[in-house]
Each structure stands twice: as structure tokens, then as C-alpha cells.
Amino acid sequence: MSQKTVWIARHGNRIDFVNPEWFNTAKRPYDPHLSDDGLLQAQQLANRLIGENITQIFASPFLRTVQTANEVAAVLDLTIKLDWGLCEWLNPEWMPAMPETLSIENLAQTYRRIDLSYNEGTPQYPETWEACMKRTGEISRRLVVEFPTENILLVGHGASVIGTAAGLVGEVAQSKVKASLCCLVKIVQREEKWVIELNGDTSHLDNRENTVRFI
């Protein structure tokens, strides 16, 4: 019997981390796209996942996560299912209102691997850290039930990487998981118990983040 695996990845570097001035003129300032080096990170992530028998990709609907997931989907020849359960922590100290994003239909015009038949609802803004951990933990538990025989990849943000991992391995993930840019967490199921095998791995990247940034 094959070992069930859940892979969790954070998006690559974002344009406002590279050019903070971008925020001042952006149409959707809380939905930055990948920077050039972030796109390269996403490509390196995709190459790292070749041969890992991933059959389902789920991503947050924010542009940077869609772009990251799209690089993986192209290499693995898979579709992308967008799920708001994986979205950024909706922290009112970071964002004064629910952040504006492109619609799934608009995203799919550019990123044609998006599965338009799958679109989970929007979470409530604002949310506390505890609410974010609850939301993201619930999605990882739900998806392993809905896809019991498949290896899945979840592409999210710093907070949702931690939360989805915690949903499977428990609250220890909140202090243990390192969620740097374009990192990988690998969680495997052993005798009904989920165990972290890779924790925030960035060995696939040429350009690694030394200090984890959330916003």
C-alpha cells in the first residue's frame, strides 16, 4: 500500500517585497504578483515536485499563489483548484478591508489550468490568528477525506502553510513549521498518524529567504 502524502508550499517572492513602492500605485495593492525571482522560485519548486506522484493541486485565489501553483501544474500536467480556505490571514492590521482579488473567471483567462468547476467560498474578514488557524486547519482535514487515495499539493501563504500543517499534525506545527518563501512541507500518513517529513524545505531554491516575512 502506497504512503499518502500531503505537500504544502508557500508562494514565491512577491513584487512588493522587492519593490515596496509598487504598493502605492497598484490597482489591487493587497494582491501582488510574483517578482521575477519569485517566478523562478516557482519554477524550481515545480521541478522539485516531479516524480512525487501528486495528483491534485489546490491553491489560494490570490495572484501570487495562483502563479506559483500554475508553474507546478504546467510541469506536472495537472489542473488547479482554487480554495479560499487556503487564503492569506485576513489580518486587519495588514489590510483595512477584505482584499480585492481577480475573479476566478478572470484568472482562468490567463491561467487556463484553473478548474472552473471548483470554487470554495470566501472566508469572513477580519479574522484573528486563531480563526485563521481554524480555517486553514479545517481545509487540510477536509481535503484528505475528500481525496483519500491521492497525494495533494496545497499552495498558500505563510499563515496557511502553518495552519494546514497544524490541521494534520496538531498545534505543534504552529511553533515548528518554517514557512519561508516557496518552501515545502511534506506530511505523510503512517498508521493513521500524520508526521512531518520535510519542514519548510528550501533546498530546491537558488535564492532562499533567511528571515521569514509574512507581510
Briefly say what this structure is:
With 215 residues, this protein is α/β, with parallel strands linked by helices. Helix content is 36%, strand content 21%.
Descriptive account of the structure:
The chain is α/β, with parallel strands linked by helices and 215 residues long. The protein has a single domain, classed as Rossmann fold. 36% of the residues lie in helices and 21% in strands. The protein contains eight helices and seven strands; from the N terminus they run βαααβαβαβαβααββ. It has a seven-stranded mixed sheet with strand order 4-3-2-5-1-6-7, sandwiched between helices. Helix 4 links the parallel strand 2 (54-59) and strand 3. Helix 3 runs parallel beside helix 4 and helix 6 packs across helix 7. The longest helix is centred in the middle third of the chain and has 18 residues, at 129-146. The protein is globular, with a radius of gyration of 16 Å. The termini are far apart. The model has no long low-confidence stretch (mean pLDDT 95).
Briefly note the structural class of the backbone: alpha/beta
CATH evolutionary superfamily: Phosphoglycerate mutase-like
CATH topology: Rossmann fold
Number of domains: 1
β-strand amount: 15-25%
N-to-C terminal Cα separation, in Å? 41 Å
Notable characteristics:
8 helices, Rossmann fold, 36% helix, seven-stranded mixed sheet, 215 residues
Q: How do the helices and strands line up, and which of them pair or pack?
A:
Layout: E1 5-10, H1 15-18, H2 22-25, H3 36-48, E2 54-59, H4 63-76, E3 80-83, H5 104-110, E4 114-120, H6 129-146, E5 151-156, H7 158-169, H8 172-176, E6 184-190, E7 193-201
Parallel strand pairs: 1-5, 2-3, 2-5, 3-4
Antiparallel strand pairs: 1-6, 6-7
